[in-house]
Amino acid sequence: MRLLLIEDDDRIAGPLTEGLGRYGFTVDHARSGAAGLAGTEGSPDLVLLDLGLPDMDGLDVCRSLRARSAVPIIMITARGDEADRIVGLELGADDYLAKPFGVRELVARIRAVTRRTSGTLAFPPPMNPAAPQTPGLQPLGALEINRRTRQVHLDKAEIPLTPREFDLLAYLAEDPGTVHSRQQIMDTVWDPHFFGPTKTLDAHVAALRRKLGDAAWITTARGVGFRLTVPGTDGEPAR
């Protein structure tokens, strides 16, 4: 998957490019808004857009990009104000990530945005290279998640899930062992503009635990959120 990073600060762009490369992404780097707009002619799969650019405001870049392309856009910026986030989303950005952030969180956002915009996983979680691999299939111990068919099997038996339950499980499984905040889950699995009660998340987690037959699959980080773990392991995918 090829990304276009529009970021003028090399102290940020360098480590970010290197970190994303470890996850299998190819990153093209543009240091200005004009260079970024020119770079989209190469049809990147997703654009990472900083707002504080030297030649033009990143919001104007977003507006120009969206006027001519449906390429997914994630804004990455030190501007944490709600007004900037709202304007960016209204201009057509698909997500907004405030600095500082970790590469793992950004990768999760990239996967989530790609899943929403194309219905597929941006980059499959790592598996044993020596084992036969089925596109879209992620094994986690006795659990198998197939993102192409949207099916889940536990000990080879299919578990019937609602569409939202599958989306929630697939999101948590993108980075097993990592705690995802309640807000991150609601923004990704539901919608950044969802204003319903957050108790709906607890209801879906409870339903997943029942269907998986072991509450240890989804553990609670009190006061923060939830994480997917493989019972009997440290939370890493089965090898």
Structural summary, described in words:
The chain is about 40% helix and about 20% strand. It has about 240 residues and is of the alpha/beta class. The protein folds into two domains: about 1-120, Response regulator (Rossmann fold, 3-Layer(aba) Sandwich), CATH 3.40.50.2300; about 135-230, Arc Repressor Mutant, subunit A. The strands form three sheets. It has a five-stranded parallel β-sheet, with helices on both faces. The chain has a four-stranded antiparallel β-sheet with strand order 6-7-8-9, with helices on one face. Strands 10-12-11 form a three-stranded antiparallel β-sheet. Helix 2 packs parallel to helix 3, helix 6 packs across helix 7 (about 180-190) and helix 6 packs across helix 8 (about 200-210). Residues about 120-130 and about 235-239 have low confidence and may be disordered.
